[in-house]
Amino acid sequence: MRTHILAGVVLALAAGLIVVLSRALGLDLDSVALLGGAVGAVVALVPDRSAGARLVGFAAGFLAAWVGYILRAAVLPDSDGGRSVAAMLTVLICVGVVVLTRDRLPLWSLLLGAGTFAGAYELTFAAAPPEVVTTSLSTATTLVLTVAVGFFAAAVVGAHEAVATPHTHRAGHGDAPADEPSRTDLMGAEQ
């Protein structure tokens, strides 16, 4: 529990620092400081596969959403149908990446990357779809920076706990992790 509190405090300080430095340097990061920092912390703290796999998965989902927005601007109609097709394609790209990597990248990290980009960019895109190249690049840059700060802030604090209590459980693969009750614990030693 102390690790979670410490990670939260460090992340809060990092988010505050992002906003202060953003204003001082004219970077305009404050609009995504909390989103990026929190998402970066999630990618760092979720004990599923390696940090590298989680980061690559996040980046792949992020890029999938970016491709979805470029397709929306270039070939899809600006309608509910066009938005629906772009959303479906984005999710299918994420699933395709998981299949191609034979489940080495966690689907949740790809979906988190796609959702993060979409959540930060949708209003900007809707205001000027023809400017997708410049506006999406600006949004991507600010998000990558804030996600990196959140990831490193949480990783530094949570690194020793991850080593102390490894979590290698994947749904349908092996036994329950140590922090979950086993079937014997739930049903008793003998029935």
Relevant terms:
191 residues; mainly alpha; 7 helices; disordered C terminus
Structure description:
By secondary structure, this protein is mainly alpha-helical. It has one domain. 74% of the residues lie in helices and 0% in strands. The chain is built from seven helices and no strands.
Describe how the helices and strands are arranged:
Blueprint: H1 2-25, H2 33-45, H3 51-74, H4 80-100, H5 107-127, H6 132-164, H7 183-187
Summarize, please.
This protein is an all-alpha fold and 191 residues long.
Global structural class: mainly alpha
Low-confidence stretches: 162-167, 173-191
> What is the total number of structural domains?
1
Main β-sheet, in a few words? none
Global shape: flat
Helix content: over 70%
Helix and strand run: HHHHHHH
Strand content: under 5%
Termini, distance in Å?
Answer: 35 Å
Average pLDDT, to the nearest integer?
85
Number of helices: 7
